[in-house]
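Ligand-bound model needed. 6-diazenyl-5-OXO-L-norleucine.
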Amino acid sequence: MRLLFAGILVSFTCSLYAQTSSPYHYAIQKKKVVANGAVVSAHPLASRAGLTILQKGGNAVDAAIATQLALAVVYPAAGNIGGGGFMVAHLADGRNIALDFREKAPAAATRDMYLDASGNARTDLSQNGHLAAGVPGTIAGIFAELKYARLPMSTLIAPAIDLAENGFAITAAEAHSLNAAQSSFKKYNTVGPVFIKEESWKAGDTLIQKDLAKTLRLIRDKGAAGFYEGETARLILEEMQRGKGIITAADLAGYQAKEREATVFPYKQYSIVTMPLPSSGGVILQQMMKMAEELPLKSYGFESPKAVHLMAEAERLAYADRAKYLGDRDYYAVPVKTLTSKAYLHERMSLIQPDKAGASKDIQAGVLSPASEETTHLNVCDRQGNAVSITTTLNGGYGNKVVVGGAGFFLNNEMDDFSIKPGVPNMYGAVGAEANAIAPGKRMLSSMTPTLVLDKGKVFIIAGTPGGTTITTSVFQTLIDILEFNMTTEDAVNKPKFHHQWLPDEIFVETGFPIEVREALQKMGYTITQRGSIGRTEVIKISGGKIEAVGDSRGDDAAEGY
Ligand code: DON
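Prediction:
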């Protein structure tokens, strides 16, 4: 009752003050159609920060940095400086950029660190508290992004500092999410953070984060060293000592973001640009899209049982390979070339039966010949033709739930994205093996799939979403919805999604997925499980000189532009 009331209050406040946007009274715009540049992210104040930078003459990378930093303040469940992520960008000069700022395992991490004396997996330790944290990559990533920006960091970080220092009004969704996490915050923190409140949080409450503002100022003044060395590093190390974590000064000082070769593959007349390993996103999006390319999906139509069946089977096959073969390529020889080859994918597709559900117990990862080898997304485009797609994460909502004492930011619980024991599902139900086993310095496998679609070399679609293992299937469906089913951008974002990840052997469907399609799929032999929201997809589509930015209705996501 109380929450419902809070929800009404915020929407009333938002519409009342729609014209006078400030951190205390702001509107959530789901769609913006503009001519020059646009930003779409999980929070209206973060999108607004990016827009301000575009209007000051910043390019898409400048605006993405400002948005990313603002998200770390206004969306603490997933926006972060204590986590990691990936950026995929297409620059106006034609270059494709893939930047990996994924967390890495601390040097003291060991393969079996989450097994007890009897060999049982301790997912409680990989998912919450100090031991769950990987070495954060976000700030190194932001400074690597800065290479492609125009404006100084002091300008780009200013909106975030302001929002942390002077506060902002939280939305109903944020109040709900903070209230739901209170007992975890109390359990895992060694120093009480500002996020703990004795009475419930409600929509419209002001959240002020002085410690975070101080940390952001250190980053502004000292660069990445303001995080990985000096005062902030000291506070992280003291936090580790208090909570028996294992991140050391050398882990922090040694962290580096890595530029990777973007995964680029053709789909019909388009070129798809996406993230390579250590995100599984690129490999399995390519597998699913290349399988889909040969299927008459368009003639079956959106949400037809036949189209859902074939797409779910493509998802099943790709996720079976993910479990066995995918991991950090710097540590494990992943046969990417073979997994994405035409011959291999044809062989895999021959396992799909036209009108009958497959069975995951009968589908294993492909056999390769030995010779071959709470997350958040934002999109930005500018008037010069630069486009940026960034997915960043703490893994679970509020990461490991630990705020670094005195530094004001949450640490991630990304260690759970490793396969902590072969066959034991992580918090998204993903299983893995040797390829994704823990090793010191190794980056844990991700599903994050920041993606661009180019049409004749020009950016056509910018897309991405949070959602754990559902990320790649959601990006897959969003692209198919636009490219094959000619769906509007809003529908591609908001219509119910479905998800198959090989194990468990079922199709998860979002609330609102048509009942008759469910029944038709059940008749084919599928187990269907209804679940809550799948992802929070952000899309920008650029065509005919028009930029259309759409934020997902599943959250507070908001579009801005000019
Ligand atoms: O990297 C990954 O795949 C996960 N850590 C992402 C987690 C996520 O999307 C949570 N948000 N809903």
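The longest helix spans residues 305-325.
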